[in-house]
Amino acid sequence: SHGNELAHIDSVVHNFLARYDIPGLSMAIAKDGRLVFAKAYGFADKAAGELAHTQHRWRIASVSKSLTSAALFRLIETKGASFQEARTVFGPAGVLGTRFGSQPYKPYVASVRLSHLLRHTEGGWQNDANDPMFSNPQLSQADLISWTLDHRPLDRSPGASFAYSNFGYELLGRVIEQESGKSYEAYVRDAVLAPSGVTDMQIGGDTRADRKANEVVYYDGNSNSPYTMKVARMDAHGGWIAKPIDLVRFGVHVDGSPTKPDILTPASILSMTTGSTANPGYACGWATNAAGNWWHNGSLPGTFSILVRTKSGFVWAAIVNSRKNDPDLDKMMWDVVNGVHNWPTYDLF
Q1: pTM of this prediction?
Q2: Per residue in 125-154, is it b (16+ CB within 10 Å) or e — as a string?
């Protein structure tokens, strides 16, 4: 019965929150383009006793990459032959020209193409102990890009290998700005979010004092650690805040299914979800597998998030406000979905 299935969902979530010592969680699930479930659990702000609700917004961390990729494909569709995945990024013929860094560029930099940045095959700048995005907190975004080009050379020739790169997606944000003539945030809002019916997403702030309206509080180990990062500087690779309902709203508009009209052409969606020879399991801002599922997760101090699109017609999102115990949010959501056999026929969107 419906009641049993709702009880199953609540039970899975409560066990998950207890097991990983997580204050709050929010989730949303769509089936065949219809929002069929949305609920929040636990606390948005423990000290204030504020319970989480479905309108709360959470840092989504690297799920931001899916938005950036969709925005770039929107731009490719509108710009025509002059702006394609094969376009180089740096140098006189590149999208960003010589705006950043000193000339001549270090080896490989002028060979980096949009397709490499999208698929993390640019040959370095990876998310390791030396991740440029978590260094030099005093630098502006533009100065950080110039510093990285000058001081953190690429390791390998672009295209040959996969290395997950926050910095590469940061560069895609600047490419979007250069080509669209708008700020990254404004272009994503206008070209991706608004056509998907999303009005309530924005780039987050860095500190507890920078909390936006309806934003939860983040918790991890040291109470300040979620508030010591340059989140706004991460915009295109990890800076957005959102409610899960809105991530799902975006997801159903790029899912390759006719149930809700997609904001990208079938050709763009195919390209966006096709991996590289270096890593067939990562396409453009989405991980992919042989089952035909696409997803991305996000992780920062105080945050873990996931957005999933399944071949079987689901799109779901879930976000929590602590990651200190390395929560397996993906498994939890599959446990939720696999325990429900009759989804409602209504649409909560």
Answers
A1: 0.98
A2: bbbeeeebbbbeeebebeebbebbbeebeb
